[in-house]
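Why do we care about 3D structure at all? Because function follows from shape, and shape follows, mostly, from sequence. That is the central idea of this module. The next example makes it concrete: a single protein chain, its amino acid sequence, and then its structure expressed as tokens.
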Amino acid sequence: MDYNKLAELLFPCIDKSPEYYQKKFPERNLPDGAMVTRLGPSPTGFIHLGNLYGAFVDERLAHQSNGTFYLRIEDTDEKRYVEGAVETIITSLRFFGINFDEGALLNGEKGNYGPYFQSNRGKIYQCFAKELVKKGLAYPCFLTEAELSEIRKSQESAKETTGIYGKYAEKSRNLSYEDIKSNIKNNKPYVVRLKSSGNHNMPSEKIRHIEIDDAIRGKLSMPENNQDVIILKANGIPTYHFAHVIDDHFMRTTHVVRGEEWLMSLPIHVELFEKLGFKIPVYCHTAQLLKLDNGNKRKLSKRKDPELSLDYYRQEGYHPQAVKEYLLTILNSNFEEWRIANPDASIDDFKFTTEKMSSGGALFDLNKLNDISKDVLVKIPAEELYSFLLNWAKEFRPEILSLIENNKEYVTKILDLGRNGKKPRKDLIYAKQIFDFISYFFDDYFIIKDSIPKEVNDEDAAEILRRYLASYDHSDDQSQWFDKIRSIAEEMGYASKPKDFKKNPDQYKGHVGHVSTVIRIAIMGRTQSPDVWEIQQILGEKRTRERLEIMIK
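And the structure:
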């Protein structure tokens, strides 16, 4: 077989040489040790937590090493393409502070190693498919769907590995030039397959193994690939296997971060790198994101778990800083220890390493995220929280926008409530919860949610509020204010101290805490809230008195 002649038959319009692309995309001029990483999502319209998880690793590795982080859109599958998906990818990741140095943009591209949309790189892929054909390392395959189905059935019946390899590849591998030319002349569809050098038709101990140093999992040893995988589909579009090898080489990617589900494809990718004569990048196979479900760990599911979608965190109103802080706790085993030692430091000061990443399943826990979110939000100034809440309302809760927008000073005071002492309250978690938590400050959203304590009957409750209202002086300081509540409690047969009631429950109706809870419910509608005196100062005298009067009636 004259492989040069075959290559020209298959790719008559490809006139660029591999050397042309090697010169066009030279090694990057970066400092020693700088890493080049990429995110390569498909534009399907669904961007999930796994994308953010991987992107965060990519971003940290590149930027901590003074390297480059780029966005490549892997849009070769037209059936999965969703209009507007690229915008969703970029804006969603930007919201979480993930910014790219180069690659696809909302309105074009940035960088010298593009195109960054795979759909625009067809001639590059075909150039190297042509080169493999020239070297006798790839061939056209004219097997029909019916023939492929028959081969699969035969393999499954014999309990063999499915695919085109060994004897199942011989028919296609051994076609003459004349047969191939005739098939093409007759418009018979074909794909281009890699001619694998692998041979599994021998004792397992004699099968060649590939060895890779994975940056997360250490040394990996796997049987070499023996499958004649498709590298170009019948429409000339490359498969993921082929495209990513070409792109990672010519975009000069040094580290490839991807999920563990790609481990099974690693032998294919290694063989492609070897046959193309390209240096293999450092692979970093991350652990799957898992969750506890009835005591069992399982993979996060698009169908079952809304928290898998990044939209969930935006709609609920999680602060991006909180989400990133939480991701670091599951990405690097030493992050929580570092955070304890550096409570006020920026997460950018933390030295992220692949060595501290787990190769087992990473357990994602919304409750843990909420706890971390409380710690993060309590350190964010109230003015900044106000802006965050305002922007969230603009996008997701327009019906409350005017309340927030027209009452900036009022809302900022509310958000700062109880946050400035030695032990600041950690009540705020995410925007939707924040508004629910503070909604009683707005008359249109004020409702009585909780019941008065069982220790206080209805008659006493009304009398407590009448006496409180009669003695109410908005200018009282906190000490004067509570002294009046204690006096009301004592006068009405309630212990002035909870411990007195606990020691002698038969001598009292209840204690001062039960009395103050009646007042709290009248003003806030809830049994749990920040300090009542501080809340009254924010509500103002008029609104405080109105709520007390309504409850008395």
